[in-house]
Design brief:
Length: 353
């Protein structure tokens, strides 16, 4: 009996010693990036701006963005902040009531792991809608697609994530709204969806719904519904295909809005340092008679883009791009008057660490 008691006591002491061991120190990762470009529009817009682009400058060397980010992670918690400045960084928050308050912050969030493998984060996030990113190095093309401009780029709120096994991860979000760091109404927007990753294949589907109009807006407080999905498939060792489809509806006092947006991408890597990408994309919105389109202010915009990328160094990407946009109305800047099309040639560089 004494041996048993001794064994139990020693076991408890060992357990207590293990529990008293200091927790594993958190790890910190610091990074940054620089994006700059020169873009020329054949429409020669007098104001020096290209329409319907996140990178709108014509005929001048432009610092699109300079970012600095840090991520800290431990066993049960994590935090991330990304600071950004530059022309594109400022354009992202142009619709905020006080853009200058937000334009230096791209991401700022923190979270903790709870039970049942659930992680909850809160703060400012990039939107999960669509396959493109505010970080150009993560995209196949230099310029962002027309659907990217029409759909949300960021959210402020809370997010819950849980892996379900077999490459599936589910998420649920509660946020202020579309591109709403400062909430413009009393309601909230819900996002629910998930992704499946299996080797070279990725599939993601998200639903977003909520009231997006400002308080006391003439259109009232209609509920906006959005269903977004994309798939990436590796069709060969050096080739990938991506398809993005998005549809939505909102019916307010001003009338009905329905839209369909999407893009088809192809990417080919003929060599270790060279990549060629093509994209065809567009947004079409149907509205009741006399109602102004909601997403882009015009009924339809389509675009075709060709991008050649050269990895001049492991973390330095040089890109050349040719793009043509066409709208259903004269909303694109021209030299003497607005026009319905534009063609641009761009040389861009992205470096990161």
């Amino acid at each position: 009996m004494s041996r048993i008691a001794t064994t139990v006591v020693l076991s408890l002491l060992a357990a207590g010693t293990a529990a008293a061991e200091p927790p594993v120190a958190p790890t910190a990762t610091v990074g940054g990036s620089l994006e700059t470009y020169y873009q020329y529009s054949l429409a020669r817009p007098r104001a020096g701006l290209v329409g319907l682009r996140l990178e709108p400058t014509h005929g001048a060397f432009t610092l699109a963005s300079a970012t600095l980010d840090a991520t800290v992670a431990a066993d049960r918690w994590r935090a991330r902040i990304a600071l950004a400045t530059g022309a594109s960084a400022a354009a992202v928050y142009a619709t905020e009531p006080t853009p200058a308050t937000w334009q230096l912050v791209r991401e700022a969030n923190a979270g903790a792991a709870l039970g049942a493998d659930v992680t909850v984060d809160a703060g400012l996030f990039l939107s999960p809608i669509g396959p493109e990113s505010l970080a150009s190095k993560d995209d196949w093309n230099w310029s962002r697609s027309t659907p990217f401009l029409a759909l949300p780029a960021y959210h402020v709120g809370v997010r819950a994530t849980r892996p379900l096994g077999r490459g599936v991860t589910a998420q649920a979000w509660l946020v202020n709204g579309w591109n709403a760091a400062v909430d413009n109404n009393r309601g909230k927007t819900v996002l629910v969806g998930g992704a499946w990753v299996d080797g070279g294949t990725t599939v993601q589907v998200f639903y977003a719904g909520g009231g997006e109009r400002p308080t006391a807006a003439p259109a009232g407080a209609p509920w906006r519904h959005l269903l977004d999905a994309y798939a990436i498939v590796a069709v060969a060792d050096a080739a990938d295909v991506m398809v993005h489809v998005d549809g939505g509806v909102e019916d307010g006092r001003d009338g009905g809005h329905q839209w369909l947006a999407g893009a088809i991408y192809g990417r080919w890597r003929p060599g270790a340092q060279v990549e060629l990408a093509a994209r065809v994309d567009g947004v079409h919105e149907w509205t009741d008679a006399g109602v102004t389109p909601l997403l882009l202010g015009v009924e339809q915009v389509v675009a075709g883009t060709l991008t050649a990328s050269w990895r001049a160094a492991p973390q330095l990407l040089v890109r050349g791009e040719l793009r043509h946009d066409r709208a259903s109305a004269a909303v694109l800047p021209g030299r003497d008057a607005a026009r319905d099309d534009q063609t641009t040639a761009t040389v861009a560089m992205t470096a990161w660490f």
